[in-house]
Design goal:
Layout: H1 2-28, H2 30-36
Length: 37
């Protein structure tokens, strides 16, 4: 049970971090951001 909760939290946190990195990445590294998509 706790594993499912932990995975959900990690997935949510990872998604939020990914959005932040995309916003900052588009400012500093546009070509690199396009490769990640």
């Amino acid at each position: 049970m706790w594993q499912a909760i932990f995975l959900t939290i990690v997935a949510t946190a990872g998604n939020n971090v990914g959005k932040v990195l995309q916003k900052k990445g588009t400012q500093f590294l546009p070509p690199f951001s396009l490769k990640l998509k």
